[in-house]
Amino acid sequence: MRAVVIDEYGGPEVLQVVEVPDPVPGPDDILVRVAHTAVNRADTLQRAGGYPDPNRRDREILGLEYAGTVEAVGERVTLWDVGDRVMGIEAGACYAERVVTHERQALPVPEGIDLADAAAIPEVFLTAWDALVVQGGLTSGRWALVHAGASGVGTAAIQIAKAIGANIAVTCSAGKMAACSELGADIVLERSPADWSAALRAARPGGVDTILDVVGGDEANRNLASIQPQGTIVQVGLMGGGQTSVNLGLLLVKRVHWIGTTLRARPIEQKAAISQRFVAEMIPRFVDGSLRPVIDSRFAMDDIAEAHRHMEANANTGKILVDV
User: Fold this and answer.
1) What's the confidence (pLDDT) of residue 212?
2) Which site in 17, 56, 114, 242 is 20 to 30 Å from 216, CA atoms measured?
3) What pTM was computed for the model?
4) Domains and their CATH numbers in the chain
5) Which of the residues in the chain have pLDDT under 70?
């Protein structure tokens, strides 16, 4: 099969499309014929040597999510049949024509969603829902703040918040503010170096209940200034850096819950459990139209280097898809 591999770390030029052996499913696995995948920030970090795949593979194949059809099933598989449309996340190896995944980690492609669009769903909607709702405790009537509101995770977070009856403020660059408003964000703030924290306090003096932060760095103290007492900050990424000075007094006085999280490093049991809960609680919302994938652009697999450059230029609003 064809796959995107890296034999050394570096810029987009190190990405190679080569022939590699097909993966072999185990007794509880399904083999998926991948039609589409997507570029995530973690892929660019892995390519540069900063976010290694926790699974050892003969060749390092990038890619965290897929959409395709079941091509073969293991002997103990009961949830899927050959030909079923599936999507999902993996620790890696999704930039390929085939991928193996545990049957309980795969998600059904929602009725009414084209397979060509489904790869825009798993990583960002699972991440946003898990961070805001499962870990962050966001519920109807409460307020969330999400950084990088026009990113894949951000556009998913806006929709999820509105779908459950919550309110949401986002930060983003000036050129992407209109797109966030159109998706339903209640408050749209220009990101740092603009003083978004002061603007948020002016619009929402009481602060917010839950913060989803993919930036880190200097946003940490602004987050602490913007969170309500006993609120929850969920740290999902560190685009702005992992080292900063923090006012621990605010952490104590406000009794803040600060959670660090990733999906990739979790044990298979936890990934399967969160996937199955997502099927029950979120997949129906795609069917009824309250959630939808937001797609910025599409690239052919042979143009994967250009897709990475587009991601690293922060030019996208929504997901960057790759047609396998």
Assistant:
1) 98
2) 56
3) 0.95
4) 2-121+287-323 (3.90.180.10), 124-260 (3.40.50.720)
5) none
